[in-house]
Amino acid sequence: MTSKNIVIGQKVSETKVKIAKKLRRNMTDEEAVLWEYLKANRLNGLHFRRQQIIDGFIADFYCHSEGIVIEADGDIHEQRTGYDVERDRILSARGLRVFRVRNEEIRNSLTDVLEHIVNLCKT
Asked: How far is C-alpha 106 from the geometric centre of its chain's CA atoms?
């Protein structure tokens, strides 16, 4: 069974939609902090979505107009680098730019992280 297209040209399973909704309700502390600055077009008027399904993957944050995926990486990502590399390759092949930011950067250098996101959107 599929639901409506969330990103143009893709079908999304109801199971994947349920997982994305669960992830929205249970964001990490760092995702929640970053979301406060991204939601409601707060960052330079850019529209971000959270837990966006793209090609079967669930991106932490996605800006469709700029083609940018932002991933907040915690310690688990150190154990799954191969998966992340393949995932980034697939998303890049779709024409998206993937920005991975460590949770420590969000906690300790949020201003720099936000500035980097704005600069990515200018290029």
From this structure: 14
More confident position, 11 or 104:
104
CB count within 10 Å of CB 40 equals 10
What is the pTM assigned to this prediction? 0.87
Q: What are the domain boundaries of the chain? A: 2-122
Largest CA distance in the chain: 43
Angle, CA 31 vertex, CA 74 and CA 41 arms, to 5°: 145
* Average pLDDT value for residue range 59-82: 84
3-state secondary structure of 33: helix
Average confidence (pLDDT) over 4-32: 84
Flag whether pLDDT at 94 surpasses 50: yes
CATH 3.40.960.10, domain 2-122, yes or no:
yes
Where does the chain have alpha helices with state H?
Answer: 14-25, 29-38, 81-93, 103-108, 110-122
